[in-house]
TrEMBL record:
Species of origin: Idiomarina seosinensis
Gene3D superfamilies: NAD(P)-binding Rossmann-like Domain
Assigned GO CC terms: membrane
Protein name: Short chain dehydrogenase
InterPro entries hit by this protein: KR_dom, NAD(P)-bd_dom_sf, Sc_DH/Rdtase_CS, SDR_fam
Amino acid sequence: MTAIKDKTIWLTGASSGIGLALAQQLAERGARLILTSRRPVQLEELRQSLANSESHQVLALDLSNPEQAKTDAQTALSGQTIDVLINNAGISQRSEALETDLAVYRRLMEIDYFGVIALNQVALPQMVKRQQGHIVTVASVAGKVGSKLRSGYSGAKFAVVGYMDCLRAEMAEHNVQVTSILPGFVNTQIAINALQADGNQQGHNDPEIESGISANTCAEGIINAIERNKAEAIIGKGLSALAPTLQRFFPTLVRRITAKRKA
Ligand SMILES: NC(=O)c1ccc[n+]([C@@H]2O[C@H](COP(=O)([O-])OP(=O)(O)OC[C@H]3O[C@@H](n4cnc5c(N)ncnc54)[C@H](OP(=O)(O)O)[C@@H]3O)[C@@H](O)[C@H]2O)c1
């Protein structure tokens, strides 16, 4: 059981959506938060609005440059104990593989894959030394099942799920917990911020995201998975949440469905 109260939790993607809801719920439960995203002003406003605001800190990082983010985080967090790192920051994609710039694939990999590894390399050495800690990554159902318009996003999320599986095997002897979160559709800014073929943002929501679960419900599921030290947790409703199980037992059916549906 990983308790939340009095733990120092480093949370990325705290400025919006699932991360914002996580920040509010974790603060309510007595965690000390290190709030990360690119936007320091939004993060500072958030910090001041949280329960026990003075116990939280802001650390602005741009994960599209993982090497720089790692160096900046190492400097800022030097000597600080981190009990839980939640790698939640991420961007998505809405474009066909045939049309998508290579730069879009690289940006998705930098933020959704290398960004996770970079921050884990900051947090893990002291967790291993203390023989305790918890690494959590918000991957996606898209990290288990491929569908249209997400070849770069799914590629990065499959990669991060594979990386987390290997990390879990290596961390078992060090008593460091490793949790992958696989949300289905969640109503956040993810589709609005998603990259199109030329790298511009889509700029509008998708119906399936709009009708997904709320960020608050998703955050509750993530906290539950952390407290129970789950290796993997699927959080969502409908087909998006069923997809990994269907893929495992009925792969041909899933191939038929994904070839027909837009998402
Ligand atoms: N919503 C869904 O349906 C869904 C489903 C499955 C998985 N997920 C995953 O859930 C996570 C959170 O997404 P969300 O749905 O809450 O989307 P969101 O509302 O768009 O939030 C994304 C967060 O990531 C941060 N971020 C984006 N680019 C960044 C960068 N270069 N460096 C640092 N931080 C960056 C953003 O902060 P700034 O803009 O302030 O930097 C923001 O806080 C993502 O990993 C996403 O892939 C979402």
